[in-house]
């Protein structure tokens, strides 16, 4: 079982002390910084926008993994790339021209990801899987942190891993939502590569130790 990529989600961090939180991630064994962008349209919540991403970039020493939970992501991709994103994921459910969106992200020099909601079938990815670098599998319904992990995710990850292998894709599988020590090992065994952890990390008394434990599974 390969060593997982750990991506703490700053949605669960203390926004009043954002510099401190980013420096904590920098000093930890985390690999990426996961940033959720919500527009209140695609998902029923608002999170942060470009100024906050730019502020994170000023302090970040690790790659920024930006997850766009927004409609019309093509209008904002370039701005997020300029703000410092290295990975940009768009939702299959928000993109009627998904292939075009993927090409746009890659043309800007970013790694292209596609995110899928809990109800969305892996079949939706068959025609683009060879073109993408990352699949963000939502293991909770998007829009809010601290939700309960959806158990069907294990089956979905196994199906996705099979598709990736059969297509010759290099895409990594990222799990976003409800990740903790109880489900992390099973997710990795099913085929996951990247674990996004928000509330589990930032609500801990020692977030650096929690990140270390996830990394060493």
Characterize the structure shown.
It is a single chain. The protein is of the alpha/beta class and 217 residues long. It is 33% helix and 19% strand. It has eight helices and eight strands. The chain has helices spanning 18-27, 50-59, 77-83, 98-107, 153-167, 184-190, 199-202, 207-215; strands at residues 5-8, 33-38, 64-69, 87-91, 111-116, 134-138, 172-176, 194-197. The chain has an eight-stranded parallel sheet. The longest helix has 15 residues, at 153-167. The model has no long low-confidence stretch (mean pLDDT 96).
Q: Taking strands numbered 1, 2, ... along the chain, how are they ordered across the largest sheet?
A: 1-8-7-6-5-4-3-2
Percent helix, as a range, is 25-40%
Distance between the termini: 9 Å
Largest sheet: 8 strands, parallel
Low-confidence stretches: none
Q: How would you spell out the order of helices and strands? A: EHEHEHEHEEHEHEHH
Strand proportion, as a percent range, falls in: 15-25%
In DSSP terms (H or I, runs of 4 or more residues), the helix count works out at 8
The structural class is alpha/beta
Strand element count: 8
* Radius of gyration over C-alpha positions, nearest whole angstrom: 16 Å
Mean pLDDT: 96
The coarse overall form would be: globular
How does the SSE layout of this entry go?
Layout: E1 5-8, H1 18-27, E2 33-38, H2 50-59, E3 64-69, H3 77-83, E4 87-91, H4 98-107, E5 111-116, E6 134-138, H5 153-167, E7 172-176, H6 184-190, E8 194-197, H7 199-202, H8 207-215
Parallel strand pairs: 1-8, 2-3, 3-4, 4-5, 5-6, 6-7, 7-8
Structural features:
single chain, 217 residues, alpha/beta, eight-stranded parallel β-sheet, 8 helices, 8 strands, 33% helix, globular
